[in-house]
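Supplementary notes for students who missed Thursday's class. We covered one full example, reproduced here. Read the sequence, then the structure, then the short commentary at the end.
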Amino acid sequence: MKGTVRKSLGVALVVMLAVLVFAASASAKAPDEGDGPTQTLCPPQADGSKQKEWCALDRVGSFQETLEDAGFGLQEGRFAFWDLVKDTCEGKVPDALANNPWPNAYISMYFEPHEGVPTPLVDVFWQLREDEAIVLVGQTPPAAAYFSYQSFVAVPPGAPGRIGAPVGDTINIGTIHTIGPDRVNQPVVIIITGHRETERRVRAAARAAGYPDAIINVETISPVIAPLGVSRDGEEASWLGFVHRVAVPEDKTALEEYIRNPPYRLFRVTPVDPATGEVGREAVFGPDPEPVPVLRVRGTGHTEMALYPALKRLRAAILEVHGTDGKCEGECRELDTHVWTTVTREDNREVIVEKPYVGLQRGVQLLGAGRDTNYLATYPNFM
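Structure (token representation):
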């Protein structure tokens, strides 16, 4: 970013929190000022009892030791709720970015910048050296209709503005690797890396610490999608962001507690320089980039066309009350619906919220759109 990281990131903010298709109550109370993650033990079962088996946090100490034995240095980060409303009020972001209202969770990663890199204005952004990994250890959310974990290319090198493209498919409630009869409140390890040898060694360290393969998830970041590295000494590299989303909980109070005290430990894992025994500034492992991921096929082939006759009857009934001769006239206004497309207010740039890689190729802002949702909106806009 050549000395202008703070300014550039303030302007080039990725909108990582696009609207999900789930509704929530806007009247619920958000976290108080000063709230933060304090939970360090494993959460209780839904019935209030202690964990019947084991949880991922029980083995974090052993995992740290096996990572160090494998030749890595560890920097612990913070996994916490991103108070987007607060950042908006403080002028760090232009608006609340279509954020679903509390208590639908948007939990992000916070790391101190690498040595020699200024702190970005928006502190949910971080960078990843070519041979580094991010490791997240903890428990999945309490029962909810949806949850996911996803990294985004916030600002790629040379981008004309914010992009917010996901690095691949989400790790979500339907695809996450964990144990138990369901996928909620279960142990999980998530490894994020762009280097295959780093992935191999971190996986091996996780297994050596007692984590079964069944709970290990890997999100790869191909440098084709997000050029990795550290922005110092005139170099440019991608700024990344991560969002853990949870929506439509069975128990709103349980989700509020989960958001306030996320049961996770977070580490940036960096290979140690064998010559010095310390974490240095340059990559230790030779080039071994992760490939571009193969994306899942979207959809199942099943549709809601069976409801089409009922939809037509509903439209006719509405027009009978509010229309004239089966048409919208006067105060009646019929709107179209399609995938959300808009322009940014600050620089009048196009925004699309579908087909993430197409948006990345075109340099178009994506609002952090993932492939799990359709982001439908009415057209034209209305007051």
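Commentary. The helical segments are 5-11, 60-69, 84-89, 196-208, 252-260, 308-322, 356-362. The radius of gyration is 22 Å. If anything here is unclear, bring it to office hours.
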